[in-house]
Design brief:
The protein is mainly alpha-helical. The strands form two sheets. Strands 2-1-5 form a three-stranded parallel β-sheet. Strands 3-4 form a two-stranded parallel ribbon. The longest helix has 54 residues. The structure holds adenosine-5'-triphosphate and magnesium ion.
Length: 405
């Protein structure tokens, strides 16, 4: 049995308003859309001025079937039942439906089926493809372009990787060769391959970001600015050396004093640390000993120091130790930012080189992938010189766009 659409559904299906609906899975979004199409047709909209867009082919087929089932039912219902259905759908009185209106409703099934180029229920990609084929010159695509399917796209993506690999092995691999070498060592084989798959999946966003960065101060400056607020690059190696040499910290004499105070601190940690420090070195202690004394594994300052400041023998050195801990922590943060920046930059440079190679592969094949279809359509309708003309032509044809995402 078909229930009357509930209030929210009825409001969203009212063709006199524009509606945006978010609702849980299975809560009746597609039904609302189908009701809306049915109401549009009842109100006299021509089937060929209605466009329904879905994301997958299966969703498009399902929507079509459900709409035609609904209209098909109408064509065979008796007067009384049909009046009831229409009044529920449109929220009008049963008595509003005169015989002419009933005949018109019954004829919708045939009209929707028969209209040449009729009611369009298609995927977003199919819609883009059709539009680009209609305006190839304006869109800057070859009129007979073909669409790459997933298999074809992954083949070209693999080719692009091989081209890139050959290039970095060549004599002038430069900065990209460094990035390639570092990442292929840091990542296992599977993750390295996944990295390229994610370049493909994010090709649109990546290209936009890279383009914007290049128009600004360049990719490198954009990365460092995002990370540190300044475009000046950080050197991970130098930051690591600064940290581990502990230059700029307490003098050797001061460390000795600290170690002696620790030895007398009557805290087991302090005593052990003092022993380590005094055993391992004469003068400045080893970085590892200081690190383990002051920090937890994730570089938080251990709380034993603060807790020990009330020990008389320890008071004098505790504040100096805390100061040194804060300084070392700052150096570690710089080292991490430097590493993160370097890795990010490596990845982005590799992405840029791969995207260039992939674009060339696609151009050679004369095909567009799904991402291109969407990108080109966006440019065609929003930014191309001819956008106004294209939108004008589209407007002549389409009056109602319904998207089921
Ligand atoms: N008002 C209603 N009366 C009766 N059945 C309804 C109503 N609204 C939705 N349904 C039924 O609930 C089921 C799910 O509806 P529908 O497919 O429209 O949901 P959806 O939100 O599009 O789901 P998904 O998130 O899976 O796309 C369908 O069988 C539909 O016929
Ligand atoms: Mg749905």
């Amino acid at each position: 049995m078909i229930r009357a659409p509930d209030d929210a559904q009825a409001r969203a299906a009212d063709p006199r308003i524009s509606a945006f609906v978010t609702a849980n899975a299975g809560s009746g979004k597609t039904k609302t859309l189908i009701d809306r199409v049915a109401r549009l047709l009842l109100a006299g909209a021509a089937p060929d001025e209605i466009l329904c867009v879905t994301y997958t082919k299966a969703a498009a087929a399902e929507m079509q079937t459900r709409l035609f089932d609904l209209l098909g039912d109408w064509s065979v219902l008796d007067d009384e039942r049909l009046r009831l259905e229409l009044s529920r759908l449109e929220g009008r009185k049963v008595s509003d439906y005169l015989p002419d209106a009933l005949s018109a409703a019954r004829a919708l099934f045939a009209r929707a089926l028969e209209t040449p180029g009729g009611l369009k229920i298609q995927t977003l990609h199919a819609f883009c493809e059709k539009l680009l084929k209609r305006f190839p010159l304006e869109a800057g695509v070859s009129p007979g372009f073909e669409v790459l399917d997933d298999l074809g796209a992954s083949l070209l993506q693999r080719n692009a990787r091989s081209v890139l690999a050959r290039r970095v092995l060549g004599p002038d691999g430069g900065r990209i060769a460094e990035a390639y070498a570092r990442l292929s060592v840091d990542l296992d084989h599977g993750s390295f391959k996944d990295l390229f798959d994610s370049f493909a999946a994010m090709a649109g966003e990546l290209s936009d970001w890279l383009e914007k960065a290049e128009l600004g101060g360049g990719v490198e400056a954009a990365v460092w600015t995002a990370l540190t607020g300044s475009a000046t690059p950080l050197d991970a190696e130098a930051a690591g050396e600064n940290l581990e040499s502990m230059k700029g910290g307490p003098s050797e004499a001061a460390w000795l004093e600290i170690a002696e105070a620790l030895a007398k601190s009557k805290t087991s940690k302090g005593e052990r640390a003092a022993a380590d420090m005094l055993r391992d070195c004469k003068g400045r202690p080893a970085f590892e000993a200081v690190r383990d004394l002051l920090f937890t594994k994730d570089w938080k300052i251990k709380d034993w120091m603060a807790a020990s400041t009330n020990l008389k023998s320890f008071q004098g050195v505790a504040s100096r130790l805390l100061e040194e801990a804060a300084r070392l922590q700052g150096l570690e943060m710089t080292r991490r930012a430097a590493l993160a920046g370097q890795k990010t930059l490596d990845i982005l440079l590799l992405a840029r080189a791969w995207l260039t190679a992939y674009t060339i592969e696609k151009q050679l094949s004369g095909k567009l992938d799904f991402g291109d279809l969407i990108d080109r359509t966006l440019k065609l309708t929003a930014t191309a010189d001819m956008a106004a003309w294209v939108l004008y032509k589209l407007d002549q044809k389409l009056a109602h766009v319904l998207v089921d995402e």
